[in-house]
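User: For my dataset I need records formatted as: sequence, then structure tokens, nothing else. Please produce one.
Assistant:
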Amino acid sequence: MRFSSYCLLAVTPSVGAFVTLSNHQRPATRTASLNAAVTRNENFGKLAGGYLFPEIARIRNAYLEANPEMGDRIISLGIGDTTRPIPPHILSGLVEGAKQLGTTEGYSGYGAEQGQQLLREKIAKVLYNDLIDPSDVFVSDGAKCDIMRVQQMFGPKVVSAVQDPSYPVYVDTSVMMGQTGTQDPETRQYDNIVYMPCTPENGFFPDYASLPRADVVYLCSPNNPTGAAATKEQLTDMVKLCKERGSILVFDAAYAPFIRSKDVPKSIFEIEGAKDVAIEVAGFTGVRLGWTVVPSDLKFSDGSPVRDDFNRVMTTAFNGASNIVQAGGLACLDPEGQQEIDDLIDYYLENAMLLRETMQSVGCTVHGGTDAPYVFVELPESMGGSWDAFTTILEKTQVVTIPGAGFGPGGEGFLRLSAFAPRDAVVEACERLKKAF
């Protein structure tokens, strides 16, 4: 109690000071807001609207506010957020990691910013079959965060190429970093970004050779939102082209564990020569643990290692992933943990199959959902645009989806369905969706 009293005395003005003030002594009430004398970062002013997924949540919440009786009927096939509980072996790693912090011998404070050495070694061995060196692995709090760190490393003067449609973080972080001009209101594309069309006609894989050169090429496989997974031949051609053009390929492998097809690589480093041109981001979803691989062979134009600059970003702006979460990561990489992950992925892929079959049964053409947790649905013209379809489905069925246009202009006319909902919710959503089309 003494400590609490001292704290209160330190931060609370004397009561007497208030009771002795007369009305004419009171400070005038401020009627106008006070603006800081700091100019806003002009790049944030270029961003068009809010980030996609919070915007979806805002619309959903507004719908529920207007229709509170529908609260129990909402089913989300929107954001790609897992819903199954952490399985026993992986959970035991997290629990043990927490317990260790409760002992003198096991307690640890700040760890290495690059991640625990044992975890880096295990990632290299179990997930990459020793194709990469553990010293090139940077453990983090997730792939999305690492994409921004990669952008911070590259800075404002590079030109980036993105798939269209694509995960919004590539474009939005490019804008934030000052790499772009403004967005064209007609095309909804930013100046100084190379948009690589990904359509059903090209298998949702970009024809980079036919487009202007970019310094940095962002490629996601299995892809969010289209669900397309690049073949070894496609990735071999991309690596070769990046070498010829002097581009750095940033390969987003966040959904690699969903790959079941034998001709689809799970890592860009399965491709010969990729260590000369590529960075890979990946991770375990749910508890915010990811990693980025920056090979020591990858160099900037002046010959300096890209890895050294990324290491500087990590050591300056990051204090390392949670020790508890890293303990869980180690458990994930045990044989028991790998089996648990495979079982979870089988569950979500079965959900994806149900969604695929449902949309096909109502006459829609569907993509993805076989090597990825996303089903990309071609909308009939009668549904209008993708935002119109999103609104219609929400109001008629109380199922939350994601409009393809939210992933860029190339996503117009499509709807993304996520397979991460619980099974009973997916089954119910399928029945409702049949009535909406």
